[in-house]
Each structure stands twice: as C-alpha cells, then as structure tokens.
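Quick illustration for those who missed Monday's session on complexes.
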Amino acid sequence: MATRVALVTGASSGIGEATARLLAREPEMQLVLLARREERLARLAEELPTRTTCIAADLTAEDAPPRVLEHLQAHHEGRLNLLVNNAGASWRATFAEGGYANVKHTMALNFDAVVRLTEVLLPLLRASAPSAIVNVASTASRVARPGAGAYSAAKFALVGWTDALYAEERSHGVHVGMVLPGFIATEGFPANELRARAATRWIVSTPERAAEAVLDTGLRGHAERYVPRPYFLAAAARLLLPGLTRRVLSGGGGAALTTSTGADAAENSTRQARQ
Ligand SMILES: NC(=O)c1ccc[n+]([C@@H]2O[C@H](COP(=O)([O-])OP(=O)(O)OC[C@H]3O[C@@H](n4cnc5c(N)ncnc54)[C@H](OP(=O)(O)O)[C@@H]3O)[C@@H](O)[C@H]2O)c1
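Prediction with NAP bound:
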C-alpha cells in the first residue's frame, strides 16, 4: 500500500487528538497535526507510532492556509489523502449579549477558517485522489439552542457547504463527509452540567467514539455520521416536529442543554487576570 498523508486540525486535544491516535494505527499513514499549542502537538507526535509532523498555527490568521500548503510541499511531497477539519470552539452568548461581534468571531474559526484552508488544499487532495475531507460539524448544525446561536450559525453553514462540496468533488475522487457530534466531554466542551447529574450523564460520550466516526467518514466512505448515532433523532425531531422542538428548546430544556464551554472559561480567566 502506498503511503497516505492525513492532516488533522485541532489535534492538540479532544476529538482531534483522539482522531490522530486512531489514524496513527492505520497502515502506511503519515500524520500532520495542527493547532496553536505547539508543545501539546510535539508531545503527541512523540507518542505516535508513525511519521508525524506538526504545524503550530492559528487557523483564523491570514497566513495559516499558505503556511500549511508550504509545510505539505516541504515535508510530505505535496501529498494529502485526508483533511480533517476539526478545530473549533463555541463562545456562549445570547444575540442580545454577544451581538454581531460574537457571530463574526465564531464564524471566523468554525466556518471561514475551514473554507479558507480547504480552498488552498483542494488541488493537493484532487492530485492525491482517492482522498477525502471530513468536516467536524455538530448536532448544533441541525438544532439550535438559546445561547448558542452564533455556534449554530457557523455549524449550519458548514453542513450546507459540505453537502454541496460532496456533490462537486465526487467526480474528482475527493470524498467529502461530515461528522455531527452530540455531547462529547472534551476540554472545549466539558459538559460538566450534564455529567454532574445521573439523569443526563448517559447522553455524554467520549472523544474516542467521535474519532471512530471521523475514520468511518474519511476512510470508509460514510457521508454523514452522528455520534453517538441516536443524536440523529434530535435532527429528525427538528424537521418532523418543529413546534414541539421549539417549545422544548425555548423552555427549561434549551437552557439545560446549553452547557458552558472551555472557550468561555478561557475568556473569563483572561478578563479576571486583566482586572
Ligand atoms: N465536544 C463536543 O461536545 C462537540 C460537539 C459537537 C461538535 N464538536 C466539534 O468538535 C470539534 C473539536 O472540538 P473538541 O470537542 O475536541 O474541543 P477541544 O478539545 O477544545 O478541541 C478543539 C481543538 O481546536 C483547536 N483550536 C481552537 N482554536 C483554534 C485556532 N484558532 N486555530 C487552530 N486550532 C484551534 C484547539 O487547539 P489549540 O487551543 O491548541 O489551538 C483544539 O485542538 C470542534 O469543531 C467542535 O465544534 C464538539
């Protein structure tokens, strides 16, 4: 089997890290890990049983996509068989509190950065075909909760764009798929509120389960994977029972399901340090 090259964004923790660990077990797989925390990436690369290179970059920076392209050309002969667009975060705020500033900030990472990176890497993916793109979306790409409108706007946009790209790239040998996680306990989305209660703990899953869904999509041809699988029921309910879904989510149910995030915690500690 010829060597394959996979790039995972957001590989320094959570779903991206678990994906990198799982991909590293695939035969003839070289990895490229990307995130901002360089030391985390270096530590992970040391542990993996395959050739792994790292890029420390902020994906919202203007020069991130050309830097990634240069890296692949310099270290992996310009090959790319799998692009996992996984990096993402959510800053919780109602629209009245966060306004356009929060929507813009959230779109920049969860949508614009994915589109910009994919644009620059698409020629490599076509030249390396058969190849694949996996976009890590969310159940929030199908159902919106109060306090997470900016995140849903970005993730809804991501699935719409992904469906179109699937149809466009099929004939070029680039499979395009999406993974839609529900609650997965990670640094960015700890789901502490749900894990604290026996009644809701069972709905929270693990990064390893999400990573399996990424591999099903990127290596085994799936186009769309909810993880855990029963979360597709939330998407079905939104389509088939819109009135009921709205009532549940605009009552206590919606607030209970809008858990606080790692990005919120990081922003609060920066604010406190400044005071
Ligand atoms: N966990 C869930 O419940 C859940 C549910 C639905 C969807 N998702 C999606 O799953 C994906 C992975 O999230 P996760 O749960 O694994 O959270 P996580 O553990 O916080 O991982 C997020 C990753 O993205 C990277 N990242 C964040 N901002 C970045 C930037 N500006 N440039 C480059 N990298 C950046 C982070 O690394 P650095 O901080 O080192 O840059 C980290 O490696 C996200 O797209 C998220 O929206 C998660």
